[in-house]
Amino acid sequence: MSAVPILLSVEGLTKSYGGVHAVRDVSFSLHAGEILALIGPNGAGKSTCFNILNGQIAPGSGRVRLLGRDTTGEKPRAIWRLGVGRTFQITATFATMTVRENVQVALVSHHSRLFNMWASAPKLARDEAERLLGLVGMNGFADRPCGELAYGDLKRLELAIALANQPKLLLMDEPTAGMAPRERIELMRLTARIAREQSIGVLFTEHDMDVVFEHADRILVLNRGALIAEGVPEEVRRNPQVRAIYLGEGLVYDARHREGASA
Amino acid sequence: MAFYIVQFLTGLASAASLFLVASGLSIIFGVTRIVNFAHGAFYMLGAYLAYTLTERLSGALGFWGGIVAAALAVAAFGVLIEMILLRRIYRSPELFQLLATFGLTLMIEDIVVLIWGPDDLLGRRAPGFRGAVDFFGQQIPTYDLFLIVLSPIVLGLLWLLFRRTRWGVLVRAATQDRDMVAALGVNQKWLFTSVFALGVFLAALGGALQIPRDAANHAMDLNIIVDVFVVVVIGGLGSIIGAFVAAVLVSELNAFGILIFPKISIILVFLVMAVVLIVRPWGLFGKPEAPARKTPGLTVRPWRPLSGNERLAMIGVLVVAAALPLISGSYVLTVASEIAIFVIFAASLHFLMSVGGLASFGHAAYFGLGAYGVAFLAKMAGMPMIVCLLIGPLLGLLGAAVFGFFVVQLSGVYFAMLTLAFAQIVWSIAFQWVGVTGGDNGILGVWPAAWAGGAANFYWLSLGIAVLVVAALRIMVFSPFGYALRATRDSALRSEAIGIDGKRIQWTAFVIAGTAAGIGGALFAFLKGSVFPDSVGISLSVDALVMVLLGGVETVSGAIVGAIVYKALNIWLVSYTDFSKLVLGAVIVLIVVAMPKGIVGTIETLQTRRARPAKATILASQAETAE
Lengths: 263, 627
Ligand SMILES: Nc1ncnc2c1ncn2[C@@H]1O[C@H](COP(=O)(O)OP(=O)(O)OP(=O)(O)O)[C@@H](O)[C@H]1O
Ligand SMILES: [Mg+2]
Prior knowledge:
Largest sheet of chain A: 6 strands, mixed
Shape of chain B: globular
Bound molecules: adenosine-5'-triphosphate, magnesium ion
Oligomer: heterodimer
């Protein structure tokens, strides 16, 4: 492992809202090309972790190192420029633009042309946008208004946007929430393929255990803000504490279950 | 020393009305999320009605009874307005709510003239508070002392009302979470109505209590609303305590500002407001607001550049416009020049509010600054016209750069209120700083050079500049910068997450819009041959808003169509009726309620519907529910 560079390392992250300890003393690291899942029940603090990682909120304490740099407290836009793509639990896209334009804006920003006031933006980086849309299987949607997309398509669009800056790290907060089971599996397979091909590190969270166990190289389990388990899927699956949390929710991983779903 | 204490007490007394109106505005906003622009109009109605009632009813009982009865009557009127108008727009974008209540203000202004005539009315003295007490040789009116005592009492009563009654508990719950109250089975409609009634009652009471101090007059609605906006921006919208503290603060700053900067006393308030906004953008006692409802959101039709044919059509229209001097006389040409200038003005606001989602209620400030810039250069420095036209608008740029820095820190209603307050500050300076600006008399004799003299030449000049400005703005709309600006408007979260510095983009857009408005103002100064504080005034700012709205806020070319239609209508209207505000106000209210997409937006919707019948209906229904 030591030959592979560490993309992200987190030490002692803590964040509380009033009396609620959303995240407490979370530490972990992620290597290039690794797919790491962050799982946990609702309200465990997963989104809060993502928001700290991409600079949307400042941690109460702790440090975040991205690509060898201390980025604690930096703005999301600065972190994005380092090569971090992000998708949101609740999609955030530009509703009044077409699907292609959504990607073009990200590309134009990546090429640092935001203050260009005379070029025609719809003509800029068009091929690149088409390529990204093709990657997530949305070629046919390029001219559709983003505001009328189905939720599952918005999720795919978010992935295309997140890939626009040729990221080294992808942060994906519930990338498949709100999608049909079949779409979910497809989207995650796609993400995993892109990540492997381009050696992108992925941190994702997901409530669908099928998806998690199929793709994650390693799993972190968060409960009430604290990491309670970490390891390869096999280890985590056997962990009694994890079982205890998930048993109540009927989410224990079951191999047969998955085969049933993908059949 | 005694003098300063008396000055302080006068300030406290002035705070009373300010507090009453501001707390009413805050209470209404807390529950309904509407910033009621018409609050100043209700205040004015309170004063006029109280004047009539206290004149008719005799004795102490008649006086005090008249004051309370006036406030109650206006509150009842408010209930009517709430039920007829506001209930239709609770879910509309904030801009539309502000505009509808502004339209209401315009209507009430003319109704007041209709009923009470154009003169100022000085009410009679309050029985029991006619005299003054002597304070180390300084006189303090006893009525002032009464007002000083009154505000804390009202504050206390409001506190009791909200803490000790079931209704108050409901209101507080609704302020925190509207949907929860609906879920509890409370009749939300009547909760809103009663809250609105209370708010209006407080405003009208504030007005009624003013009549022994100041004459009731026609400017009092806008004067108070600007002060009230400043108060709630400082104190925090939705907070009654905030309204109290800030009302006292603002009144004292005004009372002492006169002593420090007699010419431009408003500067002091401005400085304090700027500091508060930097330190606590949501006010001293306010809470950070959830993201504002987006101004756009009626349709999801993406914008596109003009096609080749459409460009040809545009050129055709321009050729026809340029041929106008061949067929018309100088009056028509002067009107047409004015329309061209207002096309520039409306297009500049469009860039800010449609592309940037930043609805400025004080855009006239930059128009006026451009006009004054030209006037200074032409009259004081004796510069030739061409130099004036090139450099004059830079004053608009400068103003937009300074004010824009502060305003883009805010969004939604706070943005609207702050832009209005800044514009009002510019207006006050233009009005008060007589030595430089000529005050009310303006600056006269700003005539165009010979090459631009004559109606036809000036028209061609205006048309040419309008085409250049509109084309430049349009290119920017479809440039990467325009996309970044729209991206920031559509989703601040996403745009920040793809490396866009939203505030910087918005600030730049504000400066661009301010400069473009300044260009319009510069031409306007030459067209009229003079500059008056009017060209910085609120009504001009609102004219621009209405033009954009009338044309269609969510379209690319709506502002231009809106400006032409509105200006032509306006000029025609003013020559036919004395009550143009009444008509104008009604038009605004009607557009908001009945045709929120504007002329161009409605046409586009019809076109899409014809092109894709099935899909367009789905779209339209989505569009209605989308906020
Ligand atoms: N802005 C906030 N203010 C107050 N509490 C918050 C805030 N954001 C999150 N919390 C609280 O922090 C805790 C963690 O929230 P978070 O959104 O990170 O959970 P999550 O693991 O992403 O849950 P989910 O699976 O539902 O998305 C929750 O108890 C939540 O209520
Ligand atoms: Mg979450």
